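Troubleshooting log. The previous run stalled partway through. Resubmitting the same two chains, unchanged.
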Amino acid sequence: MKVLIVIPAYNEQENIERVVDDLIQNYPQYDYLVVNDGSKDRTAAICREKGYHFLDLPVNLGLAGAFQAGMRYADRMDYDMAIQFDGDGQHDPQYIEAMAAKMEEEALDVVIGSRFRDKKKPLSLRMMGNQMIQLAIQITTGVTIKDPTSGMRMFNRSMIREFAHNLNYGPEPDTIAYLLRNGASVQEVQVEMKERIAGESYFNLKRAVEYMVRMCTSIVLIQWFRKRRV
Amino acid sequence: MSIMLRTALIVISLLTLWYTARKIRKAQLQIEDSIFWMAFPAALVILSVFPGIATWAAKMLGVQSPVNFIFLAVIFILIVKIFSLSLRISQLDTKIRTLTQEIAIREKLQQEKKEKDTAASA
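Second attempt completed without errors. Output:
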C-alpha cells in the first residue's frame, strides 16, 4: 500500500521543517508531499534547501486548490491512499497507521482522523460550529460524523482520482456530506490533535462564523443540486 | 416615452457603440464579447426610434408606462449578462487552477527525472 501524505503549506516557514523532518525521521514508510501554495515567506526556500519533496505552486490557490494539486500528483503517481495533513504540526502522524489499516480492512472511501469519535466534544464557542455542521450532515445524509471539521482525512484510490479531476471537491465538510449522500463510505478513527506551536492560525472568530455559515448553507442547500459523475 | 428620453437613449447607445468599436480596433476586446455590446445599444436605438414597440409591450405585460417596460427589459438583460459573466469567471478560475497545479507537477516530475539521471550516471 502506497500512502502519500499531502501537506498544503501557506506561509508555514515556522512549522514546515519540524513537521517534515519528523515524517522523514520517524515515518519513512510513508511518502510525503509538501504543496507550497504560493507562500510569501521562506516556505519554498526551506523546502528547496532541505531537499524536501514539494510542489511549488506559482500563484496562491487557497487550501482547496493546493490540496487538489497534491491529489493530482497522487493520482499520477498511482498512490493507493492519500492523507490530508496540516503543515502547522497539529496532526500527529502516529495515527496514520490506524487510519490506513481501517481503510484497508473495511474497504472505505474516506477515513477521518476524529477528535471526538470516542471522546466528548467540549462545549466551547469553537466547537459550536463543529456541532452545527455535524447536525447539518446528520439531517441531510442520516450519517453521524462526530468531527466533520477535522482537517486530517484519508482518501482511497478512487477518491484520489475523483478529487484530482473535479470541480467543487474542496477538502471540507461539505464535500464529505456530498460524498456521503452519493454512497461513499466514511468512517472515523479516534486521534489526538496538538495545538499549533508557531505561526498564526487562519481561524479567528469572524472567519470561524463565516466558515460555519458557508459550510451549513452548502450542505443544507447547495449540495442537493450536484450530480456525481464517476 | 418623451422625446427627451428617446433622444437621450439614442445618444447614449451611439456612444456605447462607438466606445465598443474603439475597443475592438485597439484589440482590447474579443469579437465574441463585443457582440453583446453591439446588440444591446442597437436594441435601445430601435426602441427609441419606434416607441410603439415599448407602448405595445407595456400594455401586453400590464406595465404602467412604456418607460417602465424599458427599465424592466434592461434590468433583465443585465442580470442575464452578469450571470453569464459569473459563469465565465468560474470557468476561468478552474482553468487557472488546473494550469497552476499542472505547472507545479511537471516541474516536480522533471526534477525527479533529473535526480534519477544523475544518480544513474554517477
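Takeaways: The radius of gyration of chain A is 17 Å. Chain A has a mean pLDDT of 92.
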